[in-house]
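Note to self: keep these together.
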Amino acid sequence: MVFLLAIIAGLADVVGGLLPFFARTKNISMRYVLAFAAGTVIAAAFFELLPESKVEDNWMYLGLGFFVYYLIEKGLELHACGERECEARGVSWITVVGMASDNIIDGIGIGVGFIVNPILGVLITLAVIAHEVPQGMATTLIMKDAGYKLNRIIPTLIFAGVLYPAGVAISGFVPERFLGPAIAFVAGVFIYVGASALMHEAHKSFNFKVILVLLMGAGLALGLRFLE
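Structure:
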C-alpha cells in the first residue's frame, strides 16, 4: 500500500511535467495551482505532521528540515548565478537533480507517516501531490527554456518520480525512535516549500481569488484531519 502511495506521488510529478505540452494549460493561471498547493502543504505540516511528530521534543528537527531545504535551494541559485545577483533561470543536471532531491525526503515522509498512522501517510501523499504538480510543470518549463526536447524532459520527470519509492524504501530502515524526528524534519521542509516557494510565487501581486484558493487548499488538509 505504501509503495502504491509513492507511485501515485511520482505520477503526479510526471503528469505535472507533461501539462505544459498541452495548449489548453496556457489558459490555466499557474498562480491558482501554486496557491492551492501552498495551502495544502502548509496546513498538512501544521495540522497533521507537527502533532504527530511530538514537536515539543523534536523542535530541533523541525528547524533543521526548514534550513536544510533552504540551503539546498540557495545552493542551486549559487550554482546558477555565482555570487552576483540574478534570476536563477539557468539549468544543468545539477540543478535538475537538486530540484528533485526533495522527492526522496517526501518519499521518506510518506513511508514514515504510513508507519506511524496509515491515514497520516495518505495525507502526506496528498500534500506531496499538491506541490509536485506545479514542481513538475516548473521543471518542464525551465528545461524547455534551456532548449531541452521532450525526449530529454520525460526521462528527467521519470527519474524524479522514481525517487519517491526510493524514499519509501529508505524509510523502512528508520529506527522507531527516529520516527518523530523524521516527521518533524519533513514538516520543516513542507513549511519552507509552502511559505517561501509556493506562497511567494502565488502572491507576487495581490489577487483576492488567490487567497481564497490558498484557503481552500488549507481547508482540504484540515478537513482530512477531522475525517481521521
